[in-house]
């Protein structure tokens, strides 16, 4: 009887939500999108924020390393700008035609939505054995598939359409999901800008002495927690897939 009960007990799925990064994860780095994004960010810093071109590479690397995105770092050190304008400048001119449809990935993602679970269905003529537990049944398990990206929604939608994956995900957790619109007050000038390069040139400089950013983004733990809250899932039953995983 104890064996029968064990066989009839359906194993609960380990995960009920899969969070997927978008850029350089669902489409390859070889698409060249990342290099275009980097160039566009640099151009924005020069053309819109008045930063010297010679400082762009080092500043961009420091901001990305310490804040997760260049935008988050720019806001932290004192630059103010319109978020929609920034995203339009950075993503609006991308060669989305470089992203090709991926039917194989689509098939994989579609199949992730159903899991086969084993339950007991032993014919009465068969003796009880370990084999009897492997006899049958297919139960549907619906896994929530979500996009979790630091990019804006328009960029995510365009990339997913190019991949042919727009119907594979239940939701898109993106920049706008986690961040309210920026009021974009006028910048007070260089005196109000924190010199992050100068900071790290000092002996013993630490990252925990840096100003905080108002932008919520990966890999910040608060951003992860907020994304899981929005997706309405148990953090212990979610898996995140990204190129850094």
TrEMBL record:
<keyword id="KW-0378">Hydrolase</keyword>
<protein>
    <submittedName>
        <fullName>Haloacid dehalogenase-like hydrolase family protein, putative, expressed</fullName>
    </submittedName>
</protein>
<dbReference type="InterPro" id="IPR023214">
    <property type="entry name" value="HAD_sf"/>
</dbReference>
<dbReference type="GO" id="GO:0016787">
    <property type="term" value="F:hydrolase activity"/>
</dbReference>
<dbReference type="InterPro" id="IPR036412">
    <property type="entry name" value="HAD-like_sf"/>
</dbReference>
């Amino acid at each position: 009887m104890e064996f029968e009960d064990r066989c009839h007990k359906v194993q609960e799925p380990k995960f009920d939500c899969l969070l997927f990064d978008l850029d350089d994860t669902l489409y390859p780095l070889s698409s060249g999108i990342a290099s275009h994004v980097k160039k566009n960010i640099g151009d924005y810093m020069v053309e819109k924020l008045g930063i010297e071109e010679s400082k762009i590479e080092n500043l961009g690397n420091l901001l990305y390393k310490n804040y997760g995105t260049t935008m988050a770092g720019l806001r932290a050190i004192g630059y103010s700008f319109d978020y929609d304008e920034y995203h339009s400048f950075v993503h609006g001119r991308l060669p989305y035609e470089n992203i090709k449809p991926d039917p194989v990935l689509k098939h994989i993602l579609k199949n992730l939505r159903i899991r086969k679970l084993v339950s007991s269905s032993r014919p009465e003529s068969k003796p009880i054995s370990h084999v009897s537990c492997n006899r049958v049944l297919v139960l549907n398990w619906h896994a929530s598939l979500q996009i979790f990206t630091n990019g804006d929604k328009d960029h995510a939608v365009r990339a997913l359409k190019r991949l042919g994956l727009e119907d594979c995900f239940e939701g898109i957790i993106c920049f706008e999901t986690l961040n309210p619109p920026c009021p974009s007050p006028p910048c007070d000038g260089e005196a109000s800008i924190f010199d992050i390069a100068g900071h790290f040139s000092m002996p013993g400089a630490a990252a925990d002495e840096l100003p905080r950013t108002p932008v919520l983004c990966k890999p910040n733990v608060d951003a992860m927690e907020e994304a899981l809250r929005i997706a309405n899932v148990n953090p212990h039953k979610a898996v995140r897939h990204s190129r850094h995983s």
